[in-house]
C-alpha cells in the first residue's frame, strides 16, 4: 500500500507498543460538508468585515485620506474634492458586507461541490487511506 505508512508502523512498533489503524475515507456526508463550509465562510466574512473596519480606522487616524484628498485635489484642480466623502466608513463597510455575503454563498457552494466531487472520485480511486495510532 503506502511505504510511508509501513515505515511509520515499523518505527512505532520498535519504540512503543502502540496500535496503528489504517482507515479509508470513502464517503463525505453532503450536509455535513455544507454546514462546515457555511460556518467557515461566515467566520471568514466576519474576519473580512472586522479587518476592513480596523484598516480603515488606522488609515483615517494616520491622516492618509486627508493627504490623498489634497493630492487628488491638486492634480484635478478641484480643491473641494474629499476622499472621505466618496469613500467614507459607511460606504466601505457596505461594500465589504456585500463582498462578505457573496463569499458566504460561494464558499458554501464550493464546499458542497467539493463533497460531491470527492464522493464521485471515490468510486474511481477507492478512497483516501489515512493512518491513525492509539497512544
Q: Would you give an account of this structure?
A:
This is DUF3566 domain-containing protein. This protein is mainly α and 135 residues long. It is built from 5 helices and 2 strands. Helix content is 74%, strand content 10%.
Question: Topology of this structure?
Answer:
Blueprint: H1 3-15, E1 19-25, H2 30-62, H3 64-76, H4 83-86, H5 89-125, E2 128-134
Antiparallel strand pairs: 1-2
Organism: Naasia aerilata
Keywords: Membrane, Transmembrane, Transmembrane helix
Domain DUF3566: 19-133
Give a concise summary.
This protein is mainly α and 135 residues long.
Instruction: List the uncertain runs.
Output: none
| Fraction in beta strands | 5-15%
Distance between the termini: 23 Å
The count of domains is 1
Global structural class: mainly alpha
Shape by Cα distribution: elongated
Task: Profile the largest sheet.
Answer: 2 strands, antiparallel
Give the neighbour order of strands across the main sheet.
Answer: 1-2
Q: Residue-averaged pLDDT, rounded? A: 88
What is the rounded Rg? Answer: 26 Å
Counted beta strands: 2
- Secondary structure tally, helices: 5
Domain DUF3566: 19-133
Organism: Naasia aerilata
Protein name: DUF3566 domain-containing protein
Keywords: Membrane, Transmembrane, Transmembrane helix
Summary keywords:
5 helices; elongated; transmembrane; DUF3566 domain-containing protein
